[in-house]
Amino acid sequence: MRISNRRTYILIVCMLLTAAVFGTLPANVVAQNDPPVADAGGPYTAPEGTAIVFDASGSTDPNPDVLQYRWDFDNDGLWDTSFSTDPTAVNTWFDDYSGLVVVNVSDGEFNITDTADVTVTNADPILITGQYDTVDEGQPFSVVIEFTDPGPFDQFLTTVTVDGSGHGGLKLPVLGLNDVTYGSVILHTTLYANDYKLDELKLKAEKGKISSYTVGGGPHEVFSPSVTEETISLPLQFGETANIDIEMEPEPITTCGDQTEIWALQWHTISDGLQISTGIFTNATQKCPLSFDKSIGDDCGQDFHTIKITISDLNGGMDFDLIEFKVNNVAPDVYVRGPDPTVDTGDEVHFNGSFKDPGWLDTHTIEWDFGDGYTDNGSLTPTHTYSSSGTYTVTLNVTDDDGGVGTDTLTVTVEGEGTTMDWTPIYWFIFFIVIAILLITMYLLKSKGRVEDE
Questions:
Q1: I need a surface site. Which of 8, 110, 268, 287 has the fewest CB within 10 A?
Q2: Which of 359, 356, 358, 304 is nearest to 327 (CA)?
Q3: Is residue 138 included in any domain, yes or no?
Q4: Cα–Cα distance between 397 and 331 in angstroms, integer?
Q5: What is the pLDDT of residues 394-443, one digit of tens each?
Q6: If you compute the radius of gyration of the chain from its CA atoms, what whole number of angstroms results?
Q7: Residues 20 and 85 in one domain
Q8: CA distances (Å), 269 to each of 11, 49, 73, 166, 196, in order?
Q9: What is the tally of structural domains in the chain?
């Protein structure tokens, strides 16, 4: 276009120079506003139970506008935070998660969104303690373990091996156990309305139930029967605080033998319909006495045996611990059955013994002493005949292969004249010596007679 009016040409040149120097145009010239460029950052990865800081500070605006940010942590279409000039936000997942986080960036005219990948990985449980123990062979043994897991909603499974031999699995409850408690649990907390006014506190019992609550010393709200979800109306203005007391009715658990109780309570603060913060109260430290019916049948000559305890959270996380314990040999319990008998000389007496050994893998030797110099080995039901009257103490000894000896006795009374010789081994020895002397004497005399005849 050709400009023929010199005055008009000069005016246009002046306007362009003014815009170049001062960055503005005259009032009758409108500057164009361009939308911001949203950047959600990421990708974000963290273990469960760990706070993730989301950062949209990489967002830009072609114009010098002040940007505001809000976040949707799970891409469900509901904003979890209100608009703020702070480009960062924090959220924590207490279980595995994979999805998108959404940021909305606004310059006051345009609202631009961007997404980033979020991956919350499983965290391994951690065994804290293992208690050493000493047990007798054949007796059930127990081990007390304690473990933690940042993912309180995981389920756990323990497997146990003793000296490499599996003893099956024991499933522990969701969340886990703390010291045994009965009755109610009072949770004390304080809410702070530092950055936002707080309208509501939403509660959801994951384990157990909510039986009552009190806000700031106000009326004590009681639920009968107890509830699993409740919304508490606050409200708190900027800078205000409120003390909250929540009474929980724990859930009884009997998985570990004795009755124990667990509880877990999720909470969310709400401002203008938006979730501001979230968290969980729980007795998340797991503690469970593991009692195994399996016992050790023999001390096997070992100074120590080894228990391997493995804890897994069914999501691939695991930890294990090795615990040494000693098994003591136990002597067998021995019994000679029946009352003390009274018999006549020459009668055949029947004995009946038995024994019990908690070390069922032990081997045993059996020995009877009838009190008259005679013994019998190997049988629990021997017979014996007494040739002389008197009172005899009968002893049964059972010895296991580890040297443990069990003993029981019986008294036998033998009546009669005792006309028969008590043929104890010494008498048999004397008898044969006498016979031998007689035979030698007769042989010598016979030999001498032959010599004299010649």
A1: 8
A2: 304
A3: yes
A4: 11
A5: 999 999 988 899 999 999 999 986 544 555 677 778 888 888 888 888 87
A6: 46
A7: no
A8: 60, 19, 15, 48, 10
A9: 5
The DSSP secondary structure of 142-159, one letter per residue, reads EEEEEEE-S-TT--EEEE
Q: Measuring CA to CA, which residue among 323, 311, 318 is closest to residue 163?
A: 323
Among all chains, which residue has been given the structure tokens 């009172």? Answer: 391
Residues 6+ away with beta carbon under 8 Å from 350 = 381, 383
Q: Are residues 105 and 239 in the same domain?
A: no
* Domain shared by 408 and 349, yes or no: yes
Residue 72 structure tokens:
């949707």
pTM: 0.48
Q: Which of helix, strand or coil describes residue 440?
A: helix
For residues 50 and 112, membership in a common domain is answered with: yes
pLDDT above 90: residue 384: yes
> What range defines the domain where residue 13 resides?
1-30
Tens digits of residue pLDDT in 387-406: 999 999 999 999 998 889 99
Across 57-184, the runs of DSSP E, i.e. the strands, are 68-72, 88-92, 97-106, 111-121, 126-130, 133-136, 141-148, 156-162, 165-172
